TrEMBL record:
Signal peptide: none
Organism, scientific name: Muribaculum gordoncarteri
HTH luxR-type domain residues: 119-184
Taxonomic superkingdom: Bacteria
Keyword DNA-binding in record: yes
Gene Ontology BP, a term: regulation of DNA-templated transcription
Listed Pfam families: GerE
Gene Ontology MF terms in the entry: DNA binding
SMART domains xref list: HTH_LUXR (SM00421)
Protein name: Response regulator transcription factor
UniProt keyword annotations, A-Z: DNA-binding, Transcription, Transcription regulation
Length: 197
């Protein structure tokens, strides 16, 4: 069973308490739901740092949602809970939408999809250590030289290399070089001597 922290922001007591009650009944996901004051949303989100924020678009407008996404220190999905259909332009601001008329199964499916997306994304994101290994590889360093530079064992470097290959599905130094340049891990002039002429 997956565990997820969810914050609910709405000026409607019926929406917040109703959603909290529904979330508590979900079978496949264990939810810790916190109601937050829309007037103090920035401050409270900073303390709670939920993975999912459910907002009432009548209380938190689309502009505020964009601001919350851009200023959040960690990955946060934002779901709109609506009573009437949202305009298409507004609906695109949210990661998902749910209706107050949705069944528990529909809400579970929506949350499961978000959690699956988050898990897939997490598998593709490299840790800082893995980025350091990629940088060393594209600069032409051996495993031993990378290990010395990072102050770790050669076995640790090799484990990082396997994880990198698994996450990125890139299995050649040339492919890693392209990835490193596109991801801005290295600048082209840093690795010119390693590139074929």
């Amino acid at each position: 069973m997956k565990h997820v922290d969810i914050a609910i922001a709405s000026s409607s007591v019926i929406v917040t308490t109703g959603l909290a009650a529904i979330l508590a009944k979900l079978r496949d996901i264990h939810v810790t739901a916190k109601e937050i004051d829309p007037e103090r949303i920035d401050e409270q989100l900073g303390k709670l740092m939920p993975l999912i924020l459910i907002v009432d678009p009548l209380t938190i407008d689309a502009q505020k949602v964009k601001e919350l996404k851009s200023t959040s220190p960690s990955r946060m999905f934002i779901i709109a809970v609506y009573t009437t259909a949202l305009p298409i332009g507004t609906a695109r601001v949210y990661d998902k939408t749910i209706s107050i008329y949705d069944s528990i199964d529909t809400i579970t499916a929506t949350l499961s999809q978000l959690l699956e997306d988050e898990s897939d994304e997490g598998q593709k994101v490299l840790s800082q250590r893995e980025k350091d290994v990629v940088t060393g590889i594209v600069k032409g360093l051996s495993n031993k030289e990378i290990a010395t530079e990072m102050n770790v064992s050669v076995n640790t470097v090799m484990t990082h290399r396997r994880n990198i290959a698994s996450k990125l599905q890139i299995h050649s130094p040339a492919g890693l070089t392209i990835y490193a340049i596109v991801s801005k891990l290295v600048k082209l002039d840093e690795i010119k001597s390693q590139l074929p002429i």
